[in-house]
Design goal:
By secondary structure, the chain is an alpha+beta fold. The protein has 2 domains: about 50 residues, no CATH class; about 70 residues, no CATH class. The protein has 4 helices and 5 strands; from the N terminus they run αββαααβββ. The strands form 2 sheets. The chain has a 3-stranded antiparallel β-sheet, covered by helices on one side. The chain has a two-stranded antiparallel sheet with strand order 1-2. Helix 3 runs antiparallel to helix 4. The chain is elongated and about 75 Å long.
């Protein structure tokens, strides 16, 4: 059954959902709001699957980045310079975890296996898209399995 009511927007942009319409919702519950022309659609986030929520957050960040790009806030560079910067970034990222990981690799007694692990690390540095894409809370990362280690 459709429930229709009238509400108004405050000077801060807040809209009160009438009491009889919000009974099934909890305080602090998140909503997705969609603007289509002059129409606003409000939908509870819990009605969406988890990936959609992440996708909406990503879409909003992308839109904000695009606006910054249009304002001229991005630095322009050719592909070679970009790849050089990217490799530097990857090396910094790896060094951040190198101390603890390096200790673990040094503990490996089997030299052939140690070499295999080091070769995989080089492959990951050269191609960050190497490995199996992860899902759920590890979405956006990849993993390479070399029993008994998982490199991600």
């Amino acid at each position: 059954m459709v429930n229709i009511n009238i509400t108004k927007m405050s000077s801060k942009g807040q809209i009160v959902i009438p009491n009889e319409m919000r009974r099934e919702f909890k305080e602090g519950e998140e909503f997705v709001i969609i603007k289509n022309g002059k129409q606003l659609i409000l939908k509870s986030v819990k009605d969406f699957d988890n990936n959609l929520k992440e996708d909406l957050i990503f879409a909003k960040r992308t839109e904000e980045a695009w606006k910054r790009y249009e304002k001229g806030e991005f630095k322009s560079m050719d592909s070679k310079e970009f790849l050089k910067k990217l490799k530097t970034w990857w090396l910094i990222l790896i060094v951040e975890y190198a101390n603890s990981f390096e200790r673990e690799v040094k503990k490996i007694k089997h030299q052939e296996f140690k070499l295999k692990v080091k070769k995989q690390i080089v492959k990951i540095i050269e191609n960050p898209e190497t490995g199996k894409p992860m899902r759920f809370d590890r979405k956006g990362t990849r993993e390479v399995y070399i029993s008994p280690y998982r490199l991600s």
